[in-house]
Each structure stands twice: as structure tokens, then as C-alpha cells.
Amino acid sequence: MGLAPDMLANIHGHLTLLDRLAFAAAFRGAFKPEAPCLVLPGETPETATLYSLTDRRAVVVRATGLNHVILGSSGGGGWLVTADDRARMHLVNPVTGEQHAS
């Protein structure tokens, strides 16, 4: 038996942006998707800044692969598009760490 929906919502409301994304991924279907984030360049090619329009907060995420650079984001699901040192494209979920190579 899981936690009551109102208790999950209370916990969710106290989390940081990246923690809310991870929490929502763990409890799929329990929450509405987060509002879209802007994906901005990071200070290095391997990082990007996700800016929440709702919260007006930013969080830095890192490409999960060695020698990967972040190129942009996909239309849905929170995926980042990265490329490795051989120019192979990858989809990476910065919250779950899941990856898909093209």
C-alpha cells in the first residue's frame, strides 16, 4: 500500500525542481507533468541549465556520457539531445539517467 495522494502532493510541493522531476518519474501518473523548462547553454559544453518558468528557478544538468555535449532537448518527456565524440546522437533523461543511442 502506498502513500495517500494528498501526502504525496505535500511532499512534491516541498521539493526542488530537479527533485520534483525525479519524484514525478518515480510516481508516474500521480502528478501532472511539470511545466516546460527552457534549456539554456551551460558553462561548459557538457552542461545545460534548465530554467523553470513556473518556479523562476534554474538547475544545472550534466550530460551523462563521457565526452558528450548537450545539443538541445526533445519535445516531450524531459529528454536532452546529446552527441558523443564520434558525433553519434543520444537521447538522455537527466532525471532518470536513461539513455537511447541513435
Question: Could you list some keywords that capture this structure?
Answer:
four-stranded antiparallel beta sheet; 19% helix; 2 helices; elongated; 102 residues
Computed Rg: 15 Å
Helix content: 10-25%
Provide the residue-averaged pLDDT.
78
Q: Unreliable runs, pLDDT <50, ≥5 residues?
A: none
Order of helices and strands: HHEEEEEEE
Counting DSSP H or I runs of 4 or more residues, the number of helices is 2
What general outline do the C-alpha atoms trace? elongated
Straight-line distance between termini: 39 Å
- Counting DSSP E segments of at least 2 residues, the number of strands comes to 7
Strand order of the largest sheet: 4-5-6-7
- Main sheet summary: 4 strands, antiparallel
β-sheet strand percentage? 25-35%
- Structural class estimated from helices and strands: alpha+beta
Could you describe the 3D structure shown?
By secondary structure, the chain is an alpha+beta fold. 19% of the residues lie in helices and 32% in strands. The chain is built from 2 helices and 7 strands; from the N terminus they run ααβββββββ. It has helices at residues 5-13, 17-26; strands at residues 37-41, 47-52, 57-62, 69-73, 80-83, 89-92, 99-101. The strands form 2 sheets. A 4-stranded antiparallel beta sheet has the order 4-5-6-7, with no helix packed on it. The longest helix is centred in the first third of the chain and has 10 residues, at 17-26. The radius of gyration is 15 Å and the shape is elongated. It starts with a helix and ends with a strand.
Compile the SSE list and pairings.
Blueprint: H1 5-13, H2 17-26, E1 37-41, E2 47-52, E3 57-62, E4 69-73, E5 80-83, E6 89-92, E7 99-101
Antiparallel strand pairs: 1-2, 2-3, 4-5, 5-6, 6-7
